[in-house]
Amino acid sequence: GGMPLMQALKARHSTRAFGSKPLPPQVLSNLLWAASGVNRPETGQRTAPSAHDWREIDVYVTTADGAYRYDPPTHTLKRVVAGDIRPLAGVQDFVATAPLNLVYVADLDRMSGGSAEDKAFYSATDTGFIAQNVYLYCASAGLAVVVRGLLDREALGAALGLKKHQRIILSQSVGYPAGAK
């Protein structure tokens, strides 16, 4: 479903003004599947490529009622924090009020055999693939979206309960455009 790829590419853009209306469950489900869902159940492979098939990027979702980790094999959200930690997902004002922020976390322990340089490069590259999938889904669904690298990784990581082998790469705010009905 959704719009043709060429139209989604033409419509893709960053937006920094979000309405407060939460995303319906089906829209959130579609968004997460587009981001990094399993599209080949027989192998567990996903909608976004991953170097060496490490699948090292975890997608966390922050909303007004808590933070969750997306589990692609079961296509479910696992609560990791109760309460609103959206303001920690970035320094811009809109981050605290966007209905949700996706936080991309690399689990470096899954990157067996990779050098430190490889782990940094491939986790950033793999995050870019996921973020672009989100952009294209948002374009096709009429959602506002912006990816950001400016955030307090230490504070957000502590709030999410991340371990030393987990690194926050980027965050991406998603919601309906400001003024949308």
CATH architecture: 3-Layer(aba) Sandwich
CATH topology type: NADH Oxidase
Q: Determine and state the CATH class.
A: Alpha Beta
Multimeric status of the protein: single chain
Q: Give me the CATH superfamily.
A: NADH Oxidase
Q: For the report, how would you describe the main beta sheet?
A: 6 strands, antiparallel
> N- to C-terminal separation?
22 Å
Number of helices: 4
* Extended strand count: 8
- Helix and strand composition category: alpha+beta
Brief account:
By secondary structure, the protein is an alpha+beta fold. The protein has four helices and eight strands; from the N terminus they run ααββββββαβαβ.
Describe the overall structure.
The chain has 181 residues and is α+β, with helices and mostly antiparallel strands. It has a single domain (5-175), classed as NADH Oxidase (3-Layer(aba) Sandwich), CATH 3.40.109. The chain contains four helices and eight strands. The chain has helices at residues 5-11, 25-36, 116-141, 153-160; strands at 38-40, 45-46, 57-63, 66-71, 76-82, 100-107, 144-148, 166-175. The strands form two sheets. The protein has a six-stranded antiparallel β-sheet with strand order 5-4-3-6-8-7, with helices on both faces. A two-stranded antiparallel ribbon has the order 1-2. The longest helix has 26 residues, at 116-141. It is globular, with a radius of gyration of 15 Å. The mean pLDDT is 94.
